[in-house]
# Entry
Amino acid sequence: MWLSRVPMKSTEEASVKFPALHVAIEFATHAHFGQDRKYTEIPYISHPINVMEIVRTVTDDEHMLIAAVLHDVVEDTPTTIEQINAKFGEQVALLVADLTDVSKSTDGNREQRKKKDREHTASACPDAKTIKLADLIHNAESIVRHDEHFAKVFMREKQALLQVLKEGNEQLWERAHAALQEYQNNLLQDQLAK
# Structure
């Protein structure tokens, strides 16, 4: 096999640009093990990886990339902020805390819960808002493609959320805003065609 002829570097020889990011990807993969991405039924880890890749288009800050990979572990798994802090440090833990929804099912209906989460996001730091924008971009693409009914609800919530994310990366904000406008234009054209 041709691969056997390719010289492999040992761990000591390999130059790894983001060593802690590799650890975070393994950590998140393990934490999300057994969870599938809604609609596609592929392993859930694909979503955090995609969010990290979107963040990577605007920064190579390792703390932000790690937080992007870990952005759902506290919300969707038994992992705690304290565990994130112990393994990846305070800066990553603060970002993940900013990205974790604070509402509970007992906090009222969906609109009330999303309002509470939006208020939490409004007080987040600009780096967390940048990651949240990447999360919105990836989620919107998936939801619009796979769930026309829920997309109407999600995109309305996204419009409200974008108002508190303006301190995030401008390029990602523009990308998220453009996707929302495109969705609204397509919806309007569909309604006019009826």
In short: The chain has one domain: 18-193.
